[in-house]
Amino acid sequence: xxxxMKAYVDDQVSGRGxxxxxxxxxxxxxxxxxxxxxxALILKGAASPPGEEANEAWFEKRRARIRAHAG
Length: 71
What we know:
mainly alpha; 3 helices; elongated; Type II toxin-antitoxin system ParD family antitoxin; ParD_sf
């Protein structure tokens, strides 16, 4: 790792409350996994067929179902 990168990691460890550089790297890996999972969900949604139009009738149907379950 270059000196610049090491200095950056050290700054992040001390400035963001990490105990060690390994903890910082593990957090980066977790964040990257989450980003990849979110990206996969977005791509899956983009590739799926269009759903029902969310117009006033759609919302009213949901409101009626909520009222039926609440009372």
